Amino acid sequence: MSPASPKAKRRKLPWYLRPFKWLFWFIVASVLWVLVYAVVPPPVTFTMLADGNGITKDWTGLPNIDRNMVAAAIAAEDGKFCSHDGFDRDAIEQAIERNAKGKRMRGGSTISQQTAKNVFLWQGSGWTRYVRKVPEVWFTFLIEKIWGKRRIMEVYLNVAETGLGTYGVEAGAQRYFKHGAAKLTPAEAARIAAILPLPKKREAVSPSGFTRRYGNTIRARIGVVKRDGLDACIYK
C-alpha cells in the first residue's frame, strides 16, 4: 500500500472552528496594514473611491500644517484628544442617551475613531453603520497603540473630506484660501474645521448661518486649546 499523500493527511477544520481561523488572519492582516500606514501615507481610502466628484488631495506632513489647524480640529471635533485612549466614554454615553430619547442621531466619535473609519473602513449609514462599529473599535485600538497621537492627527488632517472631491487640509486650504496649510490664520483654520462634519453642504468661504456661527465658536476655542495645552501630545 502506498503511503498517503500530504494532501490526504491534511484534515479540514471543523466548521465551528473556521471563524476563529478567519479571525486570526483578519488580526494579522489588520496589524500589518496599520504598521505600513504608520510610515507610509495612505494612498487612497474607500471614501475617496466612492466619491463621484473625483479626488483632489496633497499629502502634507504635520510640520507643514499650521498649528492653528491642529488646534481647530481639536476644538471642533475632540477636546479630549490628548487625554483619552481613543474613546471618549462620556461623549459616547451622552450620545446614547440623546439617541435613546429619539433626538437627532448624533455620535460620540473621537478624532481617533474618525481616522480609523476614514482610512480603513467605509462611511455608510443605517444598519451598515452599526456593522462598521466593531472593526472601527479594533482599528482605533490599533492606531492608538501603534501610531500614537501625532501620527493619528497627521493622517486625520490628510484624509478628512474638506469639500466636493477634496481631501485633506492642504487641498482644502488651496481650494478655499489659495494658499497652503502651512500658514492658516485662526479664522481660516476654524472655517475648515467648521465644515468637516458636512463638507459637501457647508461652505468655508463667506459662510452664513450656523456655519458662520460655528466657525466663530471654533476660532475662540483655538486660544483655549493652546492655553490649556490640549494639543500637548502633539507639540511636546
From TrEMBL:
The UniProt record lists the keyword Cell membrane: yes
Keyword Transferase set for record: yes
Main location: membrane
GO cellular component, one term: peptidoglycan-based cell wall
Any one GO molecular-function label of the UniProt entry: pentosyltransferase activity
Reactions catalysed according to its record: [GlcNAc-(1->4)-Mur2Ac(oyl-L-Ala-gamma-D-Glu-L-Lys-D-Ala-D-Ala)](n)-di-trans,octa-cis-undecaprenyl diphosphate + beta-D-GlcNAc-(1->4)-Mur2Ac(oyl-L-Ala-gamma-D-Glu-L-Lys-D-Ala-D-Ala)-di-trans,octa-cis-undecaprenyl diphosphate = [GlcNAc-(1->4)-Mur2Ac(oyl-L-Ala-gamma-D-Glu-L-Lys-D-Ala-D-Ala)](n+1)-di-trans,octa-cis-undecaprenyl diphosphate + di-trans,octa-cis-undecaprenyl diphosphate + H(+)
Regions crossing the membrane: 20-40
Pfam families the record matches: Transgly (PF00912)
Topology within the bilayer: Single-pass membrane protein
Residues in Glycosyl transferase family domain copies: 56-206
Name of the protein in question: Biosynthetic peptidoglycan transglycosylase
